């Protein structure tokens, strides 16, 4: 089986190196597609070829238009790994109504694989089942969700979380390690993790999902609180961990 991977960035390379299929890369940057082949194998795409599977691995802002462009290149299934599910699932349903359709969102950077993978099985079948099995065999933990549940969760775990970490970095001085506390030391590690990647990826997350304004509003409430109000906020922040 050959899988056309539209987008030769990190996530396209991850899916190409993980599924049990021959990856065929295409990208607006032809050099990037060639580099992806060099990294994970396969070949670059030829114009107008069709493939059993088309995988959309472009930035979230380009996902829907790319699905519209490439859906007719798939003969059995179309999938995406773009990260925002509602728009991608709707676009695949619109432009590939007869095909198997699944949206995957690996909840980790490719270099940290394997990990949790959110899945929306909009129209599953034997081909997408095979792809799922390959991801699971690589050690990933796949779980089913809905586009609404997923995208609402990303407001918190991506947009708000990243905004909070970056706000901490921008609001604090570079303090010698000997002064760090367990809390600040943990935050410094998060700053290194977040700022050690590509700014454009994080900009896409902020423009796609809500969350930064909520962080700013919460910070203002903390800054303006008296002791009694602060205690209420502190108690409201306590977490009860669940798997729901």
Summary of the model, kept short:
With 244 residues, the protein is an alpha/beta fold.
How would you summarize the topology of this molecule?
Layout: E1 2-6, H1 10-18, E2 22-26, H2 30-40, E3 43-44, E4 51-56, H3 63-70, E5 74-80, H4 85-95, E6 100-106, E7 116-123, H5 126-137, E8 141-144, H6 147-171, H7 182-195, H8 199-208, H9 212-224, H10 227-236
Parallel strand pairs: 1-2, 1-4, 2-3, 4-5, 5-6, 7-8
Antiparallel strand pairs: 6-7
Helix pairs in contact: 1-2, 3-4, 4-6, 6-7, 6-8, 6-9
Task: Pick out its properties.
244 residues; alpha/beta; eight-stranded mixed sheet
Question: Any low-confidence stretches, pLDDT <50, length ≥5?
Answer: none
Q: In one word, what is the shape?
A: elongated
Structural class category:
alpha/beta
What is Rg? 20 Å
Strand elements, count: 8
Strand content: 15-25%
Percentage of helical residues?
Answer: 40-55%
Give the neighbour order of strands across the main sheet. 3-2-1-4-5-6-7-8
SSE order? EHEHEEHEHEEHEHHHHH
Largest sheet: 8 strands, mixed
| Number of alpha- plus pi-helical segments | 10
Mean pLDDT reading: 95
Measured distance between first and last alpha carbons: 36 Å
């Amino acid at each position: 089986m050959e899988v056309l991977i539209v987008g030769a960035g990190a996530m396209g390379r991850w899916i190409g190196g993980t599924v049990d299929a021959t990856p065929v890369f295409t990208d607006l940057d032809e050099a990037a597609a060639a580099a992806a082949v060099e990294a994970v194998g396969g070949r670059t795409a030829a114009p107008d070829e069709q493939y059993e599977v088309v995988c959309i691995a472009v930035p979230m802002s380009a996902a829907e238009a790319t699905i519209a462009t490439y859906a007719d290149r798939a003969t059995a299934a179309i999938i995406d790994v773009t990260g925002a599910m509602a728009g991608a699932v709707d676009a695949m349903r619109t432009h590939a109504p007869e095909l198997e359709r699944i949206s995957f969102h690996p909840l980790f950077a490719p270099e940290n694989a394997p990990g949790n993978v959110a899945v929306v099985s909009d129209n599953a079948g034997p081909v997408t089942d095979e792809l799922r099995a390959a991801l699971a065999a690589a050690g990933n933990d796949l779980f089913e969700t809905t586009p609404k549940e997923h995208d609402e969760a990303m407001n918190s775990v991506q947009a708000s979380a990243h905004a909070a970490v970056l706000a901490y970095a921008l609001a604090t001085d570079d303090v010698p390690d000997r002064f760090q506390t367990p809390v600040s030391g943990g935050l410094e590690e998060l700053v290194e993790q977040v700022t050690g990647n590509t700014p454009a990826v994080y900009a896409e997350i902020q423009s796609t999902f809500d969350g930064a304004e909520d962080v700013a509003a919460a910070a203002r409430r903390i800054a303006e609180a008296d002791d009694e109000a602060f205690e209420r906020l502190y108690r409201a922040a306590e977490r009860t961990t669940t798997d729901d």
